[in-house]
Design a protein that fits this description.
Helix content is 42%, strand content 17%. The chain is α/β, with parallel strands linked by helices. Strands 1-12-10-11 form a four-stranded parallel β-sheet, sandwiched between helices. Helix 10 links the parallel strand 10 (222-226) and strand 11. Helix 9 crosses helix 10. It binds iron/sulfur cluster.
Length: 296
């Protein structure tokens, strides 16, 4: 049985940059605070903990003074920067440039759409760090839509500008876009259609992986998808694998592997999310070898 690690899987440049920045900073200090998990992968968080990275939440941030805090790739809302200034906290800003650009676009759409009473709609996960940062650009007035049911929060008699969290699935975004179009038309059969501006702001590091993963998933008998359970990008990419290879399994680490998954398999493909470190996929490959005596 052959075991292959997908060369396109692993960290996107945003996460790689944030981890590099944290590691650089920790060379000069014993402890560095990071607001939220630096990456949605508990194995990597543990590795960085050993080097001095301390994860804190927003409540803990409020108690800190005169120290350094790293902002991870997901970005932060304006309130975080304000709080840091007030409490003499030096921010090590590792926000991904793609997220920062999207924050600017959302802010611009919000500010320029006020006169026309435009609603900013974000297709994303409520409570996700990136979504909190994006909604913060709109003074938390943005409407967050995750499922079809959430569309009830939109007023279809007013203009809508739609964005997506960078790590959502492309298919999901276009489905929501089509539903909004449909409802705008239904609600305005006898009147002029309100403006609708849909912005596919899914990161290309994510959307390009869908077609790559589709091919990879179909090429192997069994797929082992490695990701942290909290990673929204992980969930989206795993569903792509599952759709194209029913023998796809989601694991957080090699301890979750089960021998029967590999019965009669000639090839196994290992892949992961944009938050999955390469060392972890290599560890999972070794775990499969040990479990099945395969050749890597
Ligand atoms: S997925 Fe894209 S937007 Fe998100 S951190 Fe990675 S590079 Fe940045």
């Amino acid at each position: 049985m052959e075991v292959t690690i997908d060369k396109n899987s692993g960290y996107c440049f945003g996460v790689e940059f944030a981890i590099e920045m944290a590691e650089d900073e920790m060379r000069n200090c014993e402890e560095l605070y990071c607001l939220g998990d630096i990456v949605h992968n508990s194995m990597e968080v543990q590795r960085l903990y050993a080097k001095g990275l301390r994860i804190i939440d927003r409540e803990q941030l409020k108690e800190l003074r005169d120290c350094k805090v790293l902002i991870r790739a997901h970005g932060e809302p304006p309130e975080t920067y304000k709080l840091a200034l007030e409490n003499n906290i030096e921010l090590i800003d590792a926000s991904c440039p793609v997220v920062l650009k999207l924050q600017n676009r959302v802010k611009h759409a919000f500010d320029s759409g006020r006169a026309a009473d435009t609603q900013i709609v974000i297709y994303g996960q409520v409570g996700h760090a990136e979504v909190i940062g994006l909604a913060g650009q709109t003074r938390d007035e943005a409407i967050i839509v995750t499922t079809e049911e959430d569309l009830a929060k939109i007023d279809f008699n007013r203009p809508v500008t739609l964005f997506s969290q960078t790590t959502k699935s492309t298919k999901g975004f276009y489905h929501i876009k089509a539903l909004i179009e449909e409802r705008l038309q239904q609600a305005n059969q006898d009147s002029k259609l309100p403006a609708f501006d849909a912005n596919d702001s899914i990161c290309r590091q994510v959307s390009n992986r869908e077609p790559q993963l589709t091919r990879f998933a179909a090429e192997h008998d069994v797929i082992i998808f490695v990701s942290g359970k909290k990673s929204s990008n992980g969930k989206a990419l795993y569903s792509v694998c599952k759709q194209h290879n029913p023998r796809s399994y989601f694991v957080e680490n090699e301890e979750e592997l089960e021998r029967e998954w590999f019965t009669d398999a000639a090839s196994v493909g290992i892949c992961g999310a944009t938050s999955t470190p390469m060392w972890l996929m290599q560890q999972v490959a070794k775990g499969i070898t040990a479990l099945t005596e395969a050749v890597v």
